[in-house]
Amino acid sequence: MNHAQRLAHARDVLHRAETASGLSRTEDKQGWQTPQALTPVLPTLTPGIVAIEGSTTILLAIAGHASAQGAWIALVGLPLIGWGAAAEHGLDLTRTAHIPSPGARAPDVLTALADGFDIIVAGELALTVRDRRALAQRVRTRGTAILSTDWPTASAVLRVEGGEPSGYDAGIGHLKAIRYTVSSGSARTSCLWTADGLVDAPRMLRAVS
Amino acid sequence: MLGTLRGALWVPDWPVAAAIASSLAAPEEAVAVCDSRVRAASPAARRKGVRRGDTRRRALSLVPDLTIIPRDDDRDSRVFAGVLDAIDDHVASTVILRPGLVTFGASAPARLAGGLDALAASLISSVASQAEESQVGYGCGLLTSVLAARESRHVPAEETASFLAPFPISAALTVAGTERVRREWDETIDVLSSLGITTIGQFSALEHSQIASRFGLAGTILWRLCHGADHAVIQTTAPAAEIAVRRHVEAIAHEEQAAFLAKELADELAEKLATRMLVCGQLAVQAQFADGGERSRTWSVDGVNSARDITDRVRWQISGWLDSRHAHPLGELIHLELTAADLAPAGTRQTTLWGDRQRGREQAQRSVLRIQGMLGDSAVQSVRLTGGRCPDAAAQFENWHAVQERAESDRPWVGAVPKPWPSVVFPNPPRVMLACHCGGGLYVDASIQLACVGCAEPRPAILVLAPMPGRSDSDRPDSSQAHAACYYSRPVRVWNYAGPWSISGRWWASDAYRRAYLQVGVEGPAALIYRSGTNWFLEGIYS
């Protein structure tokens, strides 16, 4: 056994030990875990492009959950992010780059980011259909995931509806939870964004008249 | 007991020399480097009676036109790096006692140079090429060599005791490595002088056991030094110096030519780093352009010293500059300088044993540098949470720098806007109007209650984005306003609301504010608005 083989062997042993002891959770399945409440619609975040339409909160929740697992994240073209909320979602700001306005060079910027970051969170960017196709190819080979608010040709699309706040009435109380319904194709789930993070929504009870 | 033969190189009045080298003063002037007391004075000032340790006031009373330069230890070390480079050509390993004073083992370099005097001559001439005057002396042991350097002489081993004897013990303070050691020795010397022992001769005549029992370790070290023994000083490596390569070139306007230049300089720098077995933590690229403009940028590079890494960074940088030339005509590139700073011994850094499964700092850093080359430094930002009572004050932006650890402020802010916070926050809050069900405008009265101009039962019914004021937005398009318009393009019904709460924030700073916050549930995503002065502003959206 030469040195390289021994090192590879050592890594393999450590790798197995880590997985067995539960230190690393992303070993068995590829990709990043998504928040528990969203697993029915998006089980894992794999390389490719996911469009999330209708809610910045859900976008941040997925990115933040991956960041908490160690992902390097770049936010491009999202100048209006609420960073307080982002941090509550688990976003580790030491591993986060923020590029508020890439302007006309957005394709180059995304290409460069695809080489170095695990997840790119993209807002509205000046991209042609050709750019988008080239980028989609590139992120798949580089193992990068793009979460976008606006990507017509995305491989997965999450539609978020709702956003009803609760917790207050006529000036009393304060906003405690926001209810979202997330759908992807035929799958559908409801979740609540609270101060404790994204949780499964309790069944909505309807008054029967 | 006698130590090895050591040499010492001393540049008199180093703080003054460093100030002159940084063009802060002219050589012939009377100059003093002071904090509250005079730290060093130029010969011209000394001739008029200014002494080290004088108060500033006294120095000024002696020499009214004295040029006073504030003390700056960084400057001292930085300028001294040039002198060290000059010494490095002759002596392999040096011990820096402080900027301006260096000692080294003399025997081997002297053999190489062909004698102690030849070594001294070549050292002095090398340092003189850095425009500094220096003195070199030799002696056995640390203290002897340093004191010999002050007199520019070589003290043979057998004369060590007789050479040291007449000096006051306080002369030993010059070899104190740190401020703490210096204080300890100072106390010891104080006690000794009150016992009537003032010179090194008297001190070294005492028995070691007596010194050790009375003065402990500090006394023992001092006593051994006064006997001409060696003592390991704490700083044994060069201070964080810089290594620079520079090149004047014929005007370069094309990226390809620039790439060749980058490669050449990067190779040279990598070579220099490799021969010194160092890696750099920071790489500064400095360029001058034909029209006299200068650009420089410092990158934090994580333990990089391979030529390829340096080339990449420099190439991206130069092509970025040459590219932005169209916007800001800089002319052609005529001078390029690369400086490696924040040096550390190579090999102290290694990749993790189990490999980098995910991408890490280095790859992220590399892509960020490329983007900074394209768009400029400020295009990529790091976000830092500073904490605060309202969402728009919670984050601070800095130009990107990947840092290892960062203390996050995680303590609760009393009286903050209740969490969860809005996921969209407007840096420049757009103005909104809140109308009561009766149609009148709503405001917040003195008792922090909603009040209406038209009726006695205020209840918000309509939220509408105020039209853009024409004058400020014509020259600067405001993305906050445009984005807010996507959500609230027309008046929206208010279903419910919470608040108002009064929040008084940043009262310790000049940008203090006092606002009354209101959460409003409307058609579409809920909004967080606040009243400040006579207007309502949209702070964020719970999107």
TrEMBL record, chain A:
It comes from Flaviflexus salsibiostraticola. This is Uncharacterized protein.
From TrEMBL, chain B:
InterPro entries: DNA/RNA_pol_sf, DNA_pol_Y-fam_little_finger, SulA_CellDiv_inhibitor, UmuC. Residues 252-353 form the DNA polymerase Y-family little finger domain. It comes from the Bacteria. This is DNA polymerase Y family protein. GO terms for molecular function: damaged DNA binding. Keywords: DNA damage. One of its GO terms (biological process) is DNA repair. The keyword 4Fe-4S does not apply. Residues 30-127 form the UmuC domain.
